[in-house]
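Every protein is a chain of amino acids, and every chain bends into a shape of its own. Below is the pair of lines this work produces for a single protein:
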Amino acid sequence: MVLLSRIYTKTGDKGTTALGDGRRVPKDAPRIEAYGTVDELNAVLGLVLLVVADADGAALLKSIQNDLFDLGADLCVPERPKRGRAVQARKPLRIAEAHVKPLEQAIDRFNAALQPLRSFVLPGGTAASAWLHLARTVCRRAERRLVALARKETINPQAIIYLNRLSDLFFVMARRANDVGRADVLWVPGATQR
């Protein structure tokens, strides 16, 4: 478990930070950008939880917040190629298919109550829906950061899958928060040009 007795260490005062394996990297390194954006998403979910009305949705979001810390832990310890018989003292925490399955089940369960869309949905409606749309867009940005990182370094492929599913879940939850889609704000192409 984590023990934080001091909040400031001064070790990052020169623009570097430590990865989970102890290596120091610049604070704007792609890996730090990736898990920093995951952290930002987690903070947005804290705001969503202030306005989400249903207990089922709130419980799911709290579980996702924990998963996002798991994802941050995954990203802060770079994957290493296996060499011979060397065994690590402690296996790093990794996002797995077991993290993704509950998201897919929730998407299917929530989406079953929604009417099919005939237009794109604009962010808005209820406060909960608007915050969930913000969470969705921050999640997509985190996913883009992971994809960019994966072009340069080896990362756990389940991490990208997790974020891809998560943004879909936020979209479905945003519609659900809009009176099961009845209060969705729909895009009307060219509406301001008429």
